[in-house]
């Protein structure tokens, strides 16, 4: 046993990760009277909202909806200050929840899980940490996050760079002041698009290296509307239920018409009105076929391009910022505050890496095929090894010593996105094959945690020892996820949803597009039918 052992040797359940998922799972399993610990690599709780402290980091689901629903008193008491909550505000919310429910005492920080091995005789998982501690547990719950493993750019030379460099998702706690600095940002996904306007305000020169332009819409963020807060708080239960039954985890009026059956002027007015709402679902959910039909999608895409051309003064820069190679919405669209406007400042320049590809990071900056850009600081906003990265970083071994990495060499396979066949009593929260990143994540997290908790409770009360997906159920579900995805435009786009941002990663749509509501209904039916598709044994 290690001298500084932080974990007991035996537990009922080990949860890996102390973000929204792991903390809620801890709360629920502890309420069943189980011995549970959360193991977290970071030095504090919060997950995404602990790590992503870059300037401008903020949620783009409105605060009243990006919050736990399980504690009605909490949702009445807690006061959000802005329409879209900032990273510090979400982090203080998570801390408040942890304090309120005394969760910290069961969280082991600064401890990375390196392995989880299943023993068929004892039907126990042995979870191993980087410091060599081992703990045995009946259940192993992976709450490791879908966007928690940073991806660096695949260009040589970072180790030679003499200035300071930062990844958006591993930002110094003390913050970074770019005043007086020449700064380069590589990457124009949601993180880059949020950080760039703020970095531009500090830096003397800012060079943005863009490989693929993104569609971004304005947040029109500001102090939260107290009338709206009072209204939502007066009927929170009903709204939460509507969110759970919705397509993307936020209750909205679903579209009823095709974009192509509407007169172009009317369509433009509709897009204009929805643009002003300052949210993701407005324009994207204006018509039924925007995510399924290229011609319909093009009407929305061209509307957004029109906005970019209106905002950006220099026509050449505006064209570079206009996405033209993929359908609107099939790469995660962004919400921003002053992103396109930033390119109207003389000290900001855009480098199109499709014209002049990135060659290397040098001692003093960034070299493209065209020239070297000398900078003092480098910001990598290059994204994540999404959805499978954190799971495959752990040496997970199931029945017969099979590794998850072997099982998933052609892409992730799980039943309902919850459990891979051959890995009894192991669950993933918002795993591949569930709505996950294609939803308001808090809604999907709560659904998974509650479903897993009910199953564990059922196992205990029925004196059952193992539960695992059957190969057949897993295959049928995985095929279904693929078929539903293929009915949309998503698979045509190289995005992180498809694993296409990580060289060598299998290319397939990892999230389930059947909708949060229908998915939840399916999970409930499975449970009601004696956990159909799972093998349960004593
Ligand atoms: P995480 O918050 O990622 O937590 C996982 C934790 O597991 C991490 O703390 C990590 O350190 C830990 N961990 C991983 N591997 C190990 C290991 N081997 N050992 C120990 N610990 C480990 N979602 C939305 O719905 N709306 C948004 O607007 C939105 N904005 C986002 C903005 C950013 C910048 C990012 C990165 C993500 C955003 N998301 C958003 C997605 C966000 O990740 C989820 O909403 C949610 O916070 C995920 O919670 P989680 O607990 O599942 O995972
Ligand atoms: P991302 O969307 O994957 O963006 C990464 C960016 O880096 C892309 O522009 C990508 O270009 C570029 N890039 C990656 N590797 C590169 C290379 N080798 N050379 C040049 N450019 C490279 O990552 P992210 O911005 O961190 O966002 C990830 C997800 O987190 C989001 O989609 C969202 O779900 C969530 N998020 C949400 C918010 C929010 O507003 N709520 C904020 C941040 C993050 P390509 O497109 O060409 O690959």
From TrEMBL:
Tell me the Gene3D superfamilies matching this sequence: FAD/NAD(P)-binding domain
Any Pfam family hit: Pyr_redox_3
One GO MF term on file is: oxidoreductase activity, acting on paired donors, with incorporation or reduction of molecular oxygen, NAD(P)H as one donor, and incorporation of one atom of oxygen
Look up the record and name the cofactor or cofactors this protein needs: FAD
Alphabetical UniProt keywords: FAD, Flavoprotein, Monooxygenase, NADP, Oxidoreductase
Recorded hits in PANTHER family, A to Z, give: L-ORNITHINE N(5)-MONOOXYGENASE-RELATED
| Family stated for the protein in its record | Belongs to the FAD-binding monooxygenase family.
What is the designated name of this protein? Cation diffusion facilitator CzcD-associated flavoprotein CzcO
